Amino acid sequence: SKTIRAYCAAYGIRPEQVHKLEHHSAHRYAALYGSGFSARAAPVLAFTLDGSGDGVSNTVSRWDPENGHELLAQQSSYHSIGEFYSLVTQLLGMRPGEHEYKVMGLAPYVAPEHSERAYNIFRRYMHLNDRGEIINNSRFGTAMLARMRSDFQGERFDNIASAMQRHFENIVLDWVRYWQAKTNIATIVCGGGCFMNVKANMLIAELPEVENAFFLPSCGDESTALGGVYYLAETLDERAPDRLTDLYKGPSSTADEVERTLSEFSDQIVWRKTDDMAAAVAELLAAGNIVGRFDGRAEWGARALGNRSILCRADDPLSVRKLNQAIKMRDFWMPFAASILAEDAERYLYGADSAKNSYMTETYRTKPLAQEHLISGLHPYDHTCRAQIVSENISPSYYRVLSEFKRLTGIGGVLNTSLNLHGAPIVGSPRIAVETLLNSGLGYLAVAGYLVHRRN
Q1: Does residue 423 carry a pLDDT above 90?
Q2: Which of 34, 35, 79, 159 suits 225 as a labelling partner, its CA being 20 to 30 A distant?
Q3: For 271, phi and psi rounded to 5 degrees?
């Protein structure tokens, strides 16, 4: 095409080097090979689910090492439950395509009996038929939004959020159950933006008929590039690509860059070099300080996994208010997350598995000790935890911070949220890290080998 020829000319690429890959196939390749399940020489069931991509909203595929990929089902964007969820987000006055997580976070506060009317309305809009297809019975786009504004007039906003999340969970669980029963494949992988819904992922992982489940980290459209790489590895190299291990794929900063940045702000900050930054950060956290951590390579994707994170103690319920007032300014109902040492995951979480959950792709039901040690890193109402399980082989430097913190406090985890000001992207350079320190209530910044705080 003209667009491809222009792209090739601009970047010095030969047209024959360009390979085309359909949108949902990219999601499937990323989830399948990212999971590492392809190395087990057993069949895998792959689900993709999003708002829309190349006119498709969901697919179901079977993969095995002998026969490769087999598409079992796909549906057009007209039947998109992801688009439906986004319209409800818009109905509630939030930004569609961005704030769906706020609807999910609000949902647990409402008991099912209070949201029953709204739930029954949603059931009339969309359902799963007896062929395992998600069916839109209503309208599409702005016409659907107009209908909802009429049907939900006078309904409480939290009832609507609760009903939407419940309806989404029920349809997606029934969809997974249907295809698992039809294929008798108990190992599943999931990709596409709808699987950013960590509450639904928890319920899928808990299904007794599912033995192994993998939810691709940051599985929105940013992951299609990863799927493209896996596709080329399979088609050109004719081999099973390596699975995802860590997500620290972003840039890092040189010592010279860090030192130049600190010198530029010398009238506003004080810094000192430390030979044991993990111990220094752990001591600050144990003393109740809020610490920003900018270290090593940045995380790829939507989750802060310790290298571009704000950390604090999670055993004080007031930490949430302190963080929101000082830095984050999140909606009052929204939970924070927790980073937990792999060896302590079973102390705090039901069903923890460090092999697949280093990426905050699921929530977990928590044990009583978690509600004591990690309370400010749990959902305030249902006490579920969107956990990063930290192992030494994947995150060695961050693991040391948590290990030192545990040595000082006996607690095997901390509250972890992204290093950024409210509404801004996750910090990407030492300069923006220092500016974040100066423009917030952040107490300290650990940047590379330097511990930084404001002069005042």
Answers
A1: no
A2: 79
A3: -140, 155
Q: Residue 273's beta-bridge partner residues?
A: 450
What's the confidence (pLDDT) of residue 326? 85
- Extract the tokens encoding 23: 């949108």
Three-state SS at 128? strand
pTM of the predicted structure, to 2 decimals? 0.95
DSSP secondary structure letters along 288-312: T--EEEE-SSPPPSS---STEEEEE
Average the pLDDT over 368-378 and give the result: 97
| Cα–Cα distance for residue pair 452/430, rounded to 1 Å | 11
How many Cα neighbours within 13 Å face the side chain of 307? 24
Distance CA 117, CA 113 (A): 8
Task: Decide: 138 and 147 in contact? Cβ < 8 Å.
Answer: yes
Residue 173: name the closest of 145, 146, 195 by CA: 195
What is the reported pLDDT for 329? 87
Quickly state the pLDDT bin for 355 (edges 50, 70, 90). low
Distance between start and end Cα atoms, the chain: 59
Classify the C-alpha dihedral 441-447-451-454 as positive or negative: negative
Most distant CA pair in the chain, distance: 68
- 430-438 and 255-264 helices cross at what angle (nearest 10)? 30
pLDDT band at 354 (very low <50, low <70, confident <90, very high): low
Dihedrals φ, ψ of 68, to 5°? 75, -140
